TrEMBL record, chains A, B:
Descriptive protein name: prephenate dehydrogenase
GO MF, any single term: NAD+ binding
Parts of the chain that traverse the membrane: none
GO biological process: tyrosine biosynthetic process
Upper classification of the organism: Bacteria, Pseudomonadati, Pseudomonadota, Gammaproteobacteria, Chromatiales
Pfam families: PDH_C, PDH_N
Keywords, sorted A to Z: Amino-acid biosynthesis, Aromatic amino acid biosynthesis, NAD, Oxidoreductase, Tyrosine biosynthesis
Annotated catalysed reactions: prephenate + NAD(+) = 3-(4-hydroxyphenyl)pyruvate + CO2 + NADH
Length: 292, 292
């Protein structure tokens, strides 16, 4: 396995894989970036914006001399896509993905391939916008952002180095951790907030006065619900793919919300102020961390 | 009562009242803006940034020839402040406020004054930031934003006109509605989201790994929790001041969250996607409304 792979194959060229292609082209470190997908028009757009050098709908052609494969498809499509790719995977191919949950991707590859290839190193760039598709891709998406990789017991050291190298070329900082730790962290910081935002806007959507009510919504509501404009299919897959950790976070939050409700019911001014103060102090202390 | 009041008294000069002062000075329509408060240093800062022309800690002096009084104090301070002002209120004084809940302000004035003065017209500018204090004030805060006024049965027509005129001079659009309708709408679009954001960050704050977890939080989390950086005392007062409507919104949301949890538990892909699609469609349709 080449720890500085020159021929990259992007499977599915949306916001994340498309931005990775643009970032690698910006770095000028790759020989060729091939886009593999089912929709020729979408691939043509990816080539038009410069995210890939070459496009094909044929897995055999795409993987003929690829050194590293990036799975950039929605979580729910992982198994189907891997079944199509399976006959063309060489032992020295490095494989990574960009999914927002890692346990389900590992399970899918294990099932489809009958075991985990040494070249497989799961990954997750902590970056994105509420937009989707290669039209929303940009080379700077990963600049200074973190990418989590979750090397498995089966992962070859060279494959870990190759995936680490790939993301650093794209401008990101790379950190390694376990699959379980990743999935628990992301359930709290990303998956639960998305569920809450979707849930709040859906509650409003069912209010007969929602047109009027939204007319009076201010900046706080706008920012709080920005993530409710995210792709519904992608988030359906994430919530189900990371189901156990999401349910744990949901349960925890629902218990906290019950306590908060009791404080409002009891007009417990000191109790409410305590929660709000602790929250503000925690967020203010980390503000610059996630605002970089 | 003057329907175009020239001498304005701002009681409490924080973000909202301070910005109103700056906006009125920008419009050049007032003769004098007096700031009344307890803290001379804070009043000096308000004069230094140009939000008021004159500062005093003496209610008698502040109200001697004022035509319109704007109560810009936190909701929890309404009753205390009104008790101090009561001896100095003339019958032809127009009185308004900027509180995020209206029923509790009306109750406080009725109790303290032994009835509702004809000059009183509650108001609420739908504008603000997560920052507080006159240092965060700016003249453009209300430009193109909505101000809700809730005229009471006791309100004189001239007082309603004066408050309407005031906010239009500050650049805002003014709409009138009932106290109950205001309080229900704001519970949904503002008070509930604040409780959820405070609650989520507080849940994180109590996690032993919260330092690390926050290090991986991305833009979605940053925007979702921006309102958790708001002033804890102000939001304690709002949640308790608008308790009935907040509890109704909380109850509604908790039932919806229970259903969402059941969908995740049951791996109900179609059900989850339906909620997410409806939420995205509703938010996208209104995006430009609250992003102006």
């Amino acid at each position: 396995m080449n720890t500085e792979p020159q021929r990259i194959c992007l499977v599915g060229v949306g916001l994340i894989a498309g931005s990775l292609g643009l970032a690698l082209k910006r770095a000028g470190v790759t020989e060729r970036i091939t886009g593999l997908g089912r929709d020729p028009q979408r691939l043509a757009r990816a080539r038009a914006v410069g995210a890939i050098d070459h496009a094909t709908t044929d897995p055999a052609e795409a993987l003929a001399d690829a050194e590293l494969l990036v799975l950039g498809v929605p979580l729910g499509a992982t198994a189907t896509v891997m079944r199509e790719l399976a006959p063309h995977l060489r032992d020295d191919l490095v494989i990574t993905d960009v999914g927002s949950a890692k346990g389900c991707v590992v399970d899918d590859l294990r099932t489809v391939l009958g075991g985990l290839p040494a070249g497989f190193v799961p990954g997750h760039p902590i970056a994105g916008t509420e937009h989707s598709g290669v039209e929303a891709a940009f080379a700077e998406l990963f600049d200074g952002r973190r990418v989590i990789i979750t090397p498995l017991e089966s992962s070859a050291g060279a494959a870990v180095s190759a995936v680490d190298w790939l993301w650093r070329q794209a401008g990101a900082e790379v950190t390694a951790m376990s699959v379980a730790h990743h999935d628990r962290m992301l359930a709290i910081t990303s998956h639960l907030p998305h569920l809450l935002a979707f849930g709040l806007v859906d509650m409003l959507a069912q209010d007969p006065d929602h047109e009027e009510i939204l007319g009076y919504a201010a900046g706080g509501f706008r920012d709080f619900t920005r993530i409710a404009s995210s792709d519904p299919v992608m988030w359906r897959d994430i919530c189900l793919g990371n189901r156990d950790a999401v349910l744990e976070a949901l349960g925890h939050f629902r218990r906290d919300l019950e306590q908060l409700t009791e404080k409002v019911e009891a007009a417990d001014a000191a109790g409410l102020e305590g929660v709000f103060r602790r929250a503000k102090a925690t967020r203010d202390a980390h503000k610059h961390g996630f605002e970089r």
